[in-house]
Write a structure and sequence with these properties.
Number of domains: 2
Shape: globular
Largest sheet: 3 strands, antiparallel
Strand content: 5-15%
Strand order of the largest sheet: 3-4-5
Oligomer: single chain
Number of strands: 5
Structural class: mainly alpha
Helix content: 55-70%
């Protein structure tokens, strides 16, 4: 009898276990990702990472996304900025050593500083050029070269008020300039007033496009250090970010203080090179001289091209 009861209890337990394990659980509702079709019950697709929210973003979300992904305006920005200014090259050293969490990433830092600096410079230039005392341009002051590649080629205004090309400058450039500005001194004066603002507009593009060249030059002079091109790009981003700050300071500084502050550009670069690449001072200075010679020649060409674009478009 006892054995029979034990058999019944065992059968009941097994039946309960089967009912527990074999019954299907309630289905979990899962939306399919609109990008790859994978079931995505959460906020993000587990396969491709896309946001699963089907509604279009609001204007506020657009702004938050832009500032959150491309421009750093809070949090570690002040800490990163202080590190950039107070210890030349240390941000690069920390980043290459894997200490990235506490600082803003190099590209985002550069974009943030370039937006702030170039916007501030543009406002300062507009404010200065809007002053009537500063925009009085005599007709004879307009004579001479507008844009020149030394004695090789130039666009100039002659005594007769005609825009002419000298050297190997294509005549098509002068024709476009004449069609746009004519021979009216007032139109030319208006152009001269707005030229600085236009050059500033293209300055940011020039610096950004020349940054890979700067990194390539650094790789060339430090070919025996075993650093990758990407590591030189990080160094270039940090150095150019500081140079933009110096450029802003020189524009805003009163009197001759701008010239004094401009000395901070080569000084900072030398100190940063010493911290990142090491070496003796005489080797650092010699390498910096090679890099600066090629880089600033390219920069001058880029600025002349920017002035041509400002003149013609």
């Amino acid at each position: 009898m006892a054995a029979f009861v034990a058999l019944l209890l065992s059968a009941a337990s097994q039946s309960e276990l089967n009912s527990t394990t074999l019954l299907p659980s309630a289905p979990i509702e899962a939306h399919a990702c609109r990008n790859c079709g994978t079931p995505a019950p959460g906020k993000y697709c587990p396969e491709c990472g896309q946001d699963t929210d089907p509604r279009p973003p609001s204007a506020r979300e657009f702004v938050n996304h832009f500032f959150g992904n491309y421009i750093a305006v809070k949090g570690s920005f002040i800490q990163t900025l202080w590190r950039l200014i107070s210890k030349p090259g240390q941000l690069t050293v920390d980043y290459l050593a894997g200490r990235k969490r506490q600082y803003i990433l190099p590209l985002r830092l550069y974009v943030t500083i370039s937006v702030i600096a170039l916007l501030s410079i543009s406002i300062a230039v507009n404010s200065a050029m809007s002053n009537e005392d500063m925009v009085k341009i005599d007709a004879k002051d307009l004579q001479g070269n507008f844009i020149a590649f030394g004695n090789f080629a130039s666009v100039k205004l002659d005594k007769g008020g005609q825009i002419t090309c000298v050297g190997v400058m294509p005549e098509s450039i002068c024709k476009r300039a004449r069609d746009r500005y004519g021979a009216s001194p007032e139109v030319l004066k208006s152009f001269m007033r707005t030229l600085p603002e236009r050059v500033v507009k293209y300055l940011g593009y020039s610096l950004f496009l020349l940054m890979p060249l700067f990194a390539l030059l650094m790789k060339a002079v430090y070919f025996n250090r075993g650093k990758t091109y990407g590591e030189h790009i990080v160094f270039a981003l940090h150095v150019h970010a500081f140079w933009l700050l110096i450029l802003l300071a020189t524009v805003l500084a009163p009197g001759n203080w701008g010239n004094v502050l401009a000395l901070g550009m080569p000084t900072y670069a030398l100190l940063a090179m010493r911290r990142v690449y090491g070496g003796r001072w005489w080797t650092i200075v010699s390498r910096a001289a090679v890099v600066s010679g090629f880089y600033f020649a390219a920069l001058m060409i880029a600025l002349v091209i920017a002035a041509l674009v400002a003149l013609l478009f």
